[in-house]
Amino acid sequence: MDIIIAGAGRVGFNLARTLCGGHNVTVIDRNAEALQRLQESLDILPIHGDIENPDTYRKLIDKESDLFIAVTDLDEANLISTLIADDVIRVERKIIRLRNAFFAKSSIRQKLGIDDAVFPMELTSQTVASLLDYPKANNVKRFKYTDFKLLSVRVKTKQEELRLPTDDGYAVVGIEREKSFFIPEPGEPVKPDDLVYLFGDERPIRDLCSKLETQAPGSIDRCVVFGGGDLGVSIAKALVERGKDVKLVEKDIGLCRRAEESLEGEAMTISCKYGTAELFEEEGLGYADMMVAATDNDEYNIIKSLEAREHGIRRVVAVNNEMEYYNLMHTLGIVVVRGPKMSAYNAIIESIYSSGVVTERRYCGGKGVVFLRKIFPGSELIGRSIKPLKRKRGSRAFLIRSGELIPFDERLEVDEADVIAAFCTIEAEASVKAWIHGL
Hints:
With 439 residues, the chain is of the alpha/beta class. The protein has 14 helices and 24 strands. The strands form 5 sheets. It has a 6-stranded parallel beta sheet with strand order 3-2-1-4-5-6, sandwiched between helices. Strands 14-13-12-15-16-17 form a 6-stranded parallel beta sheet, sandwiched between helices. Helix 1 (10-19) packs parallel to helix 13, helix 6 (120-130) packs across helix 8 and helix 6 (120-130) crosses helix 13. It starts with a strand and ends with a helix.
């Protein structure tokens, strides 16, 4: 594909790095230094210029692009650049990153002919809020074609090894152990401190979580959010909407005032330096049931998470902005939630590689991939006997039928409304993708 990326920031760089291996990638930005860094490390075509200026696109005026992606930090710039690109050059498909959740509820995207929009701020804040429904889970993912969920839970038992029941409405589709991620064989035991990924009916998964995570979290009613930027405010609002008592802590007085106005008195804002050792005692934060470190600095988030745990806060969540800190956060036993930029990158990659038939999602910080293919009415696959995915340690497939999870280990005849689910490591992604798309 010929792909144009408007914006050479962190999201644009990561997208270009992922896509340039198999596609022709052009990156547009007015920051010459950022473009220079991209060109030095990646095989891309850099164009220096303002993405909101039609003259910037003159070099591409005779070009036909398969995909245009606008990922700057400004909604206005992303919207305008999409309009200009569609007018000056021929664009087959358009994906845009937006911060303002208003656009998700409006018809502006449809009027502008935008094929897909990702709202990373909303994704991160709703992910944090969803943890309230699953007190023992580290993360929860929902899917388009099934009510089954993907939950992760940290193993906290005294047993050296624990064999999980099989054929009980769920499957273990991933284990992260000491920085490595793998797809286990059925019945393979889990160990203390493993992060286990469970897919299936949430009811037996909830019961299993109680066996894996023996520390009773209790109810979550009082929450503390560190960080008064847009993300911190968005998370605070999501928690308030769930009926929680929320305190937001911010060291910048200007951001603190803006957060207070945005929250309209529904949450208490506290202006205090993050480094104050007595902060938890002075403001009564140690009585919270959950603390969320939501600044854009991962080091701050790690420090506040460790302090919160020392003060006895049971549920400690940290926003992860840089992949370099992901493993460290997991090693320290902190519940990790993707930050907006990482959410934007992953959502766009998933959108690019998903189709009307197959959706693609990533989990475990991008180390695992899940593919879902629904059998729609009229599909040529209906009634056919399908060969199973070749069994490797890095992959596993299932058939979802009428609320039942069936291992796809032998030939199966598929019916209308069935869903084929395949899980794999990033190393096995190419072969699994070829299998599920080639059915």
